[in-house]
Structures are given as C-alpha cells and as structure tokens.
Specification:
With 244 residues, the protein is mostly helical. The chain has 11 helices and no strands. Helix 7 crosses helix 8 and helix 9 runs antiparallel to helix 10.
Length: 244
C-alpha cells in the first residue's frame, strides 16, 4: 500500500506535543516545498516552466521571500512576469463574449482575460507540489488507525486538531475506514478535539483575565501562549513550538 511510505512522518507528527498533528505535517510539507523552489531547482528548465505558468498564491509568495534567496526569487518572478505579460497582451485583444446561454460553462464569464486572471489567482506551484503528499499523509492516518495499536493510542492521547483538520478527518472517516474502526475513530476524534478545544478556550480566558489589575500577581498558569494556540485551534495559524 502506497500510504506505508508516509508512516514515519505521520508518526513523528503525532509524537510531538502540539495542538494539531495535521498542522505539523502540513507545515513540514510547506517548508520542504519552499526550500525546494528556492534551492537549486529554480535553475532547472522543467521546474521553471511550471513556476512561470503557475506562479504562487498570496500565502506562499511571502514565504518564498522570507527564504532570503532574493536573486533566485527575482529570476523566478522575472520569467513568470514575462509569461504573464505575453498572455495578457494576447488575451486583451479578444472580444468579450456576452455571458449567459444554456450551454455556457459555469466557470466561464465570457471574458477570456478575466477568466485567465481568476484561474491565475488560484494557481500556485507550492500548493501543487504539496497537494499529493498532503492527501496521502491524511490517508496514512486512517491506515495506521486500522493497522497499528500503538498509533491508535497516540491518536487517543493527542491534543486533538484545529477546526479545519477536525472537519477534514471527520469527512474522510466514512470512506477511509471499515466498519470495525469507523465509529470508534469518529467518537475518539470528537472526544479529543472538543475536550482540547475547551482546554485552550479556558487557557485563553485566563490569559485575558490576567490583564485585569486584580490578577496582576496571580500566576499565568498555562496561558502565556494561549492566544497563539487559540489561533491555531480556530484558524490553523501555525507557529513552530520551541523546545522547553
């Protein structure tokens, strides 16, 4: 089974003391994809052809910039802009077709240039490079849950998941697990995620209460990083946790 190739990174994510193991996996894939783009690969013709055509989304372009390889990113953006400029000049000469009609495709506006720009907004080489591995990582979670007693224990004692990945795992469970483990998985998924969501919520409440002068001398308890953890639980906002 192909998913076996990903048992190591999935287990490593669940071994970490984190608020969402799937966020850990996603961000590791993202870091690897950014490093790949900004490494020697940007000089390879096949990679450059894809980055020229696809470009990058508004989330990943700042991460490429933070990589500090400004010359590499400059060269990538230069040839990407050349490609887009050529396409814009060509498409700008087309007449706008009146919208509507029974056979009109739902995704088309009748304006070829506008359609191209909408497509470009959703196009990203980093997203594309991550997508296949990310889906297989998720599939590996279910594979391990069905086949590995030790992993089921890791899952049960984890700190749950962010809202986005909670929903994703909930959605995938029906088609990814057999009858023997499906209900057990969903029940445990609900239990650990809701319990840990409440834990972070309570930490956040104490974080806000600490700003009251009456609590100035009270201990922070486990609330100093509660705001960041709350942002991850609700919006998958990820900050690499420092080792204590």
């Amino acid at each position: 089974m192909a998913e076996k190739l990903y048992t190591i990174p999935v287990n490593e994510a669940f071994d970490m003391d984190c608020e969402c193991p799937v966020c850990q996996m996603y961000n590791k894939l993202q870091d690897d994809a950014v490093d790949f783009v900004m490494g020697d690969s940007y000089m390879e013709d096949d990679v450059r052809m894809e980055t020229d055509a696809m470009g990058f989304c508004e989330k990943h372009l700042p991460l490429l910039y933070k990589n500090q390889n400004r010359l590499g990113l400059g060269l990538i953006m230069l040839t990407h802009m050349d490609r887009q400029l050529k396409e814009m000049e060509q498409l700008s000469k087309n007449k706008v077709v009146k919208a509507g009609g029974f056979f009109k495709k739902a995704e088309s506006t009748g304006d070829a240039l506008a359609d191209h720009m909408k497509k470009q907004e959703k196009s990203c080489y980093v997203c594309m490079r991550m997508a296949k591995s990310y889906e297989r990582y998720l599939a590996t979670i279910f594979y391990l849950y069905e086949t590995d007693d030790a992993f089921r224990q890791k899952f049960a004692t984890s700190k749950g998941f962010c809202m986005k990945h909670y929903g994703k795992l909930h959605e995938m469970a029906a088609s990814s697990l057999g009858n023997k483990h499906r209900d057990e998985f969903v029940d445990k998924l609900n239990e650990i995620t809701i319990a840990n969501f409440k834990r972070v919520r309570d930490d956040l409440e104490w974080f806000t209460d600490k700003f009251d002068y009456r609590n100035a001398d009270a201990p922070w308890k486990n609330s100093k990083d509660a705001l960041i953890r709350a942002m991850q639980k609700t919006n998958s906002y990820f900050v690499e946790e420092k080792k204590k």
